[in-house]
Amino acid sequence: MSIPLLVKDLVKVYSVKGKNTKALDGLSLTCSRPMILSLLGRNGSGKTTFVKIATGQLLADSGKLEIFGHNVIESPGEVRNMISLVPQECRPWGHLTPREHIYHYQRILGNTREGSKDRTQYVADMLNLGSIMDTEAVNLSGGQRQLIIVGMALSAEAEIYFLDEPTIGLDIITRKNVWNAINHYKKMNRTIILTTHYLDEAAALSDEIAVVSRGKLVAQGTLAQLREKVEYNTRIKTTKGLIGDSLKGHGRLLQDEEYEILYTDDSMVEEIILSAGLLKSHVEISPIGLEDVFISLVGESIDED
Amino acid sequence: MKIKGVKNLRALESLMKLNGLIPIYRRPLALVAILSTPFSFLFFVDIFSDGTQLLAGSIGGLIFTVINAATMLQSDLLFGKIDLKFQQMVSTTGISPLTYVLGMASGDIVFILPGAVFFLAVILYLSSAGILAILLIVASAFLTWVFFSLLSYLISRKVREMREIWPISVIFGIVFAVLPPIYYSVYSIPIPVRYLAYIIPTTFAALIIKDAVAGAFFSVLIPLLIYVAETLAMIFFATRISDWRQRTI
Ligand SMILES: Nc1ncnc2c1ncn2[C@@H]1O[C@H](COP(=O)(O)OP(=O)(O)O)[C@@H](O)[C@H]1O
Ligand SMILES: [Mg+2]
Predict the structure, then answer these.
(1) Which domain holds residue A127?
(2) Contacting residues of A for B83, CB less than 8 Å apart
(3) Domains contained in chain B, number
(4) Do A190 and A255 share a structural domain?
(5) I need a labelling partner for B134 at 20 to 30 A (CA). Which of A254, A296, B99, B242 fits?
(6) Residue B82 contacts A, CB cutoff 8 Å
(7) pTM of the model
């Protein structure tokens, strides 16, 4: 059995007007079974470029990309029927309603009239679109418009759904509707490749997370596995000035206007508290979350930029 | 099992609706705007020729109208590619780029159809064109539509920003529908320059219609053959390079 997604040493350089930008610098990823895989990375790290290559929009320079064993670089045509896509920053047609969008998208996919209607209703129910189904998109809010795109993409019966920032601009309740839909698809053995800047979303949904920086994979695994990749597994958060520079040697110190956060090892916590003379009530001690993992993994570039 | 042909027909029908029927129904003003340009040319031709060139003006108007559809297609393809990113969603449905272009172009046909029919009616009214002439007029218009829709597609592949297209479209309109002898006779151009006119396919489109209307069916043959050959070459070329994927999008 071939696996849903295999990416190896993918390279893409954009050359525009003599200027070269290396968007992917040997990216490698795997999705060995149907799952929700989140791609995290800072702006410009190459996520969208990857999605465009994987969905057959963009030519790669070199590397391997297989979807269920089909070579996408050589012959993207074979996989088009297996994939569905929410492109980044996609917009609906202003003069069409959500119902028309989904229905006609189904027709373009080759579905019958009846089948298209059924599928449209299915998506409308799943995403709670009921009340806006017959409103022209110009008269909808930004988030509602985004939901149309998600609805179109989810209406397709694909093996892999590439969702490039699908929940951008959605309110938390609507977002959770989308999460439910995504989880529902996963239960049906579909693979979802999700890019998002909402880390809570990635943490809540993902089976695995791939962190990308400057066109390269930094780490891929479950949240627990990623935590282990990070040097320090515990965070101690206090108001600014309580820990101070004296404890720098015990971990990594991040300071902002109000807080300071010391990333350290859980075995060190008691000692630090004692030696700094801190009261437990003044500090917040917790295992590191995805946000901390993310910052640790791609954080270097924050300082560099 | 989905049969490929049926699938493509469904896609074509929907694209025509998305890009043509529904917008016309909801925003009919565009129709008026599109009709008005060739009419204004007809208006000037009529005034400056004291009505003697009304037939030539209508032939020009017909071709201009078809070129208009191709110009609209440029903005529609770019709108779908750049603004909406609809093209990316369509590409994953499995239909080919040319099916997509044909569907979008059919949507634009809907916009120009009333104008085209009007000019055809005027041409028929002012001449004594029979069935064969009508067939040749329609064939010329059809070849023009195919040739210039594909050219628009090729142009749209190169453009990466919405604002880049309006100067291109304006120049496109001037080069193919204003300067060449479609409102006037190719024979009124002095010889060395006339060869230049023959580089532009719309010159043949007009020649075919003018000769057909005049009943000079023998003279139609050569321009028709050339125009068919040019269109076939364009189809061949467009098919060769059509690919959803590009180096940059
Ligand atoms: N169409 C393009 N032309 C030129 N450079 C581009 C283009 N798209 C993206 N880039 C560059 O490629 C890099 C990766 O961009 P992208 O894949 O969009 O990142 P992300 O989605 O992770 O934010 C960026 O440095 C960006 O400037
Ligand atoms: Mg992106």
Answers:
(1) 5-227
(2) 91
(3) 1
(4) no
(5) B99
(6) no
(7) 0.93
